Amino acid sequence: xxxxxxRVRLRSAPxxxxxxxxxxxxxxxxxxxxxxAVDRYEDTxxxxxxxxxxxxxxxxxxxxxxxxxxxxxxxxxxTAVDHVETVFQRMAKPPLRLRKDRSVIGVxxxxxxxxxxxxxxxxxxxxxxxxxxxxxxxxxxxLVAGRLPAPAPDGGVPAPLSVEAAVTxxxxxxxxxxxxxxxxxxxxxxxxxxxRISGIVAPRDPADDFWTENSDLLTPQLSAPPTPPGxxxxxYWHFSLLVDRTAARSMPLLGTLVTRYWHHPLATDGLAAHDxxxxxxxxxxxxxxxxxxxxxQATDPDIRLTGGLGTVLDDYSDDRRAVSPxxxxxxxxxxxxxxxxxxxxxxxxxxxxxxxxxxxxSRGAALRGVFRxxxxxxxAAAVPGGAVGVALALLALPTSRYGTSLLLGAAVTAVAALxxxxxxxxxxxxxxxxxxxxxxxxxxxxxxxxAELTVTVLVVGAVLTLRRRGTDSGGDPYLAAAxxxxxxxxxxxxxxxxxxxxxxxxxxxxxxxxxxxHLGLARAGRSPATSQLPLLALLVALTVxxxxxxxxxxxxxxxxxxxxxxxxxxxRVDSRFGLPRQLPDExxxxxxxxxxxxxxxxxxxxxxxxxxxxxSLVIVDPAAYARLTHDIGLPAxxxxxxxxxxxxxxxxxxxxxxLASLLGDGTARVDAAVxAVTxxxxxxxxxxxxxxxxxxxxxxxxxxxARHPDLAAYSQYSGPTxxxxxxxxxxxxxxxxxxxxxxxxxxxxxxxxRGEQRSRLGDFPLQRGARSIYLAAVAAxxxxxxxxxxxxxxxxxPQRATLLARLRxxxxxxxxxxRLVLLEMLPQALLAAVGGVxxxxxxxxxxxxxxxLRALTFGGGEQGVESADFGLxxxxxxxxxxxxxxxLLILACAVLLIQVWVSGRRRESAELRVGxxx
Length: 918
Prior knowledge:
Radius of gyration: 38 Å
Largest sheet: 12 strands, mixed
Number of helices: 32
């Protein structure tokens, strides 16, 4: 390659080379940053999903039950337990990376009653305790009083009936235990096991896995046995006694279940989303595969993999698989826009140098030589820009993978380097005679007709396939390109229609006084018919922005609606066993921001004939419940359905659609705490506040009490279990105060506010990351559309400046110059702006049925969302539709007016000699 040519060209036109380098730098940075940004938020989402899981689901856990009929107490010895740990750690290979320093190993006996006097009770039930022999007590606990438990006698003698144990500070406070005190555990054997409290310990780090893998180590827990419906709950204290590891041989003496366990937290710092498939395969192998067989052969046939890490990974993979196609749609849209802008930049340079290349050809230059020289020019500018852009992306967004980023950066650089040479050589290969190619006079060729029909077929196929298969079918690039293809088809239609209004306006404008209007429209009609790429780039960019805005608007609306459906009010209080009678009045008086308060009773029911699925019986005051349903904006509750009740016999009920279809016109027997009743369908409702996301049967509390007046008089059988509260006008409910009031008189309650639920629906890293990608896509689409407009204006800038100079010599004023340039460019800019709005509106009904926003809106961790009715889907966003299009019009007018002002300050002789050589 002749480098002297490249040096001369770079010296003669440094601004063009610098502009190309900057354009490539920015585009390459965006292209290389996209996969890295996706990797980063996917990795962050995976790590948080593991960290937020339940303690036993954050890693790999092994359990081995002790079965005295088949095994001996030797398996409970520390040496045998440690041997299993050594074998497992040796078998665990990357990507299964475990925190070896935080493994929790031990033996545990299930709870046994402790009937000793002096221990606190919450009911007539005795407290219960579990013996725990866990490795590392001395290293994870700090002695507050006494000493650590002493080792049990050697294994050669029978297991002792008396052992020493330590308790935590909180356990000692709640259970009133002191050093030297003895307690007796009565299991399923006649002989009790005596436990002497040898010491009281405080955790060195309460958040350490040693204390959190089992929730009852740090503090006693309130437990309750199963309670029949309508009965008052009976609770008791459950606590743990920490014994020495050698004392595990005494646990079988209780006759309760004894379990060995090995908990291994996952090393979340090195977790990467692309390692999840391999990690799932390895977990499957340990669960029921070669690794499981090898582990059992080397240790004990009863060793099993437990914990929910596999479920956590499966849920994450499902979410990731559902989100990826939507992110791919945004990436394809922005990539297509950037590709069109790069082609526009190359086409503009080729058009401005057409005369130069024609002169080279007339003097004997071969096409190959012209191509090499032009490629050398563009490479000298594009390669450094692309390299710097990719390097910046690699530095700004560090991840473990870089192959895709390098590939995309190289593709951007290659397109930028080849656009000018290919376009110039193609034009020089088929030289055209000098002449105008007016858009109003040009006749489309057969080749263009074939191309348009091909694009139409592709668009129809993409739209129909997307509507039928949806985005949950995987990351298909063809389906991801559906919005882009719709924009391309719209551009072809608009280009076909564009000459018609110009022709219709040209004749009336010729009869108007003055030449400015006629000349402006004539100039608009004389724009080259080949300048179609700017409109295509603009429409694709505007479609990307509007589609991204419709996705974001659909997500916001879905979360708002889902928060209303799942909470059922601005705040709710659910009780496991029933709310105290005074709670509604206490909430009204003591909680700031509370307006309307409605209570309901919700009783779960198992599947019975004719209902083949579980459902909730909701008992309400119809009038008050209808007013609350109206206030929250859910489907209207048909309170009038309860008006026609004979007072005996069948009870009118409002059913969910699923139960109504099963019941039909018949009746069904429903069990309630006050007694069974027979119900019939009086109305059907898609969702209801008291039982969100569930099948339900709603009956009137007064009508149900009339059927069973005896038991209805007792609050444990008819009292409310749910309290629904609405905000007072102009205020918001204080969630903290509501929790304080609700938990003061009652236990086992759950308090949730609509604002908290709304925040929780959007607080998933996977969803936040995908949302940021869409925000970036909207911003990038708007920026590239502005750049495409500037390039299209720049293409005609020299000829426009020369025309204005000539007209000024004939007496045209500055105001008339401004009117002229605006009339010349307004039809094209207006066509792009209006077309962008129309295409943005069209993609919502066209593509909406195939775009599933559930994963982006909620993620996989939200319960009750699947069956809730909240109208999730694409929604046209006025801001993303109007702002980019209006911005384009304003930008076009501003650039044109600036050009008129600049050209007016230059001398006409300079403008008229543009392009001349001395």
